Amino acid sequence: MDQAQRRQEHQVRPLTDRGLKRFAYTYDFGDNWEHTLTIEAIGDADPGLDYPRFLDGARRAPPEDVGGIPGFEEFVEAMAKPRHPERKRLIEWFGRVFEPEDIDLCKTARSLTPDPHPSLTPSKLR
Q: Could you tell me the pTM of the whole model?
């Protein structure tokens, strides 16, 4: 898929032209991760940038197949308590200790940006 096709695929103007500013998105129907997406503003595109773009984030995403919101809450609780009876098993399952506040902004941006440049750094995210 070339850049022009990607731009066409990710346009929100058809939604906003119909007055749509919020919509629901379900990721992983098995775990039922429900998200509400809100279009806060639309500006002119910068022809020197690739779209869609990752601008910022907070907290790490939950691991795949953690069991939806209840499973993730239990997972975070077990990871936060060294003496939790499930902690050792969950560390083995996940592969390491999970730190919910530890988000790698550059890695996230590279994973979401079409054909990102390898020198993408936090200062270049904005």
A: 0.64
